[in-house]
Write a structure and sequence with these properties.
With about 230 residues, the protein is of the alpha/beta class. The chain has helices at about 35-55, 70-85, 95-110, 155, 195-205; strands spanning about 5-10, 15-20, 25-30, 60-65, 90-95, 115-120, 125-135, 140-145, 160-165, 180-185. Strand 7 (about 125-135) and strand 8 (about 140-145) form a beta hairpin.
């Protein structure tokens, strides 16, 4: 039973929520691009005002920890760590792909036919960050960065149906054409879907080291060189 600040900045959406005993009581989100740091500060100020008005104390901070956008993850995790340090509360880390799978279940329920859930985060070109979960959010295949080709997941698809979703799934529809694959639009990692996962982490005392915890980038950050001859 806890009051937990929930933060997700892993993809194109910036979202913040507050859960009390596993139920969301306050939330804000935006898909405005290139504005996570500004929006996150604004949302947290609004949340602080709300919590002061309602006399709610923070028991923990949970953050979507990746995989995802390198910059987005860095902003979210560093902000969460700062909140934890300032309030002297524990840090909870929620895997972004598991968060997306939970988001699917929150909207559509567990697949009645036993399909595996396949959240996909865009990793540029035909690559995605992905994993497979069953309806109980048990990890069925390890998290990986996959280049999607026509025969991708052939072994899995020979005996399982999979449901793909997330901002990396749209580009895969023309390539993954197996009859056991289906696609669902409109599922993104959101702070509001983190409530039950964060509450369970808190109950299990699955706390991260505030000083040393790092986001799960999955791949090393690769800087690109500007084509502008002045380097601007």
């Amino acid at each position: 039973m806890a009051n937990i600040i929930l933060i997700d900045t892993a993809t194109e959406i910036c979202s913040v929520a507050l859960s009390v005993d596993g139920k969301v009581v306050w939330d804000k989100e935006s898909s405005e691009k290139m504005a996570h740091s500004v929006l996150l500060a604004q949302y947290l100020q609004s949340l602080e005002d709300y919590m002061r008005k309602e006399s709610i104390q923070t028991d923990a901070v949970a953050v979507s920890c990746g995989p995802g956008s390198y910059t987005g993850l860095r902003i979210g995790v560093s902000t969460a760590k700062g909140l934890c340090f300032g309030a002297n509360v524990p840090l909870l880390a929620i895997n972004t792909l598991k968060l997306m799978a939970k988001g699917y279940i929150n909207r559509y329920g567990k697949p009645s036919d036993g399909s595996w859930l396949c959240p996909m985060i865009d990793a540029r070109r035909m690559e995605v960050y992905t994993a497979f979960f069953d309806g109980d959010l048990t990890l069925k295949r390890e998290i990986s960065a996959d280049i999607i080709e026509s025969d991708s997941y052939a072994e899995i698809l020979s005996s399982n149906k999979i449901i793909c979703f997330g901002n990396g799934s749209a580009k895969c529809q023309g390539t993954l054409s197996h009859p056991n694959v289906s696609f669902v639009d409109g599922i993104s990692p959101l702070a509001t879907d983190m409530a039950e996962l964060a509450e369970q982490c808190f109950r299990d005392k699955d706390f991260k080291d505030v000083a040393y915890f790092e986001p799960f980038y999955l791949k090393e950050f690769v800087a690109t060189v500007s084509k502008n001859k002045f380097g601007i």
